[in-house]
Specification:
Elements (H helix, E strand, L loop, with lengths): L2 H12 L4 H18 L1
Helix pairs in contact: 1-2
Length: 37
């Protein structure tokens, strides 16, 4: 999957209002930013 597809996958799961998923997404996003930039 591409980065955009993975991002959409995470965003769809954030609609569950699960705080743990939000933390995982934020951590994942920060890691990707470090790796790509």
């Amino acid at each position: 999957m591409s980065f955009i597809e993975i991002s959409k996958y995470f965003i769809l799961h954030l609609t569950r209002n699960n705080k743990f998923n939000i933390l995982v997404f934020l951590g994942y996003f920060l890691i990707v930013n470090v790796l790509y930039f």
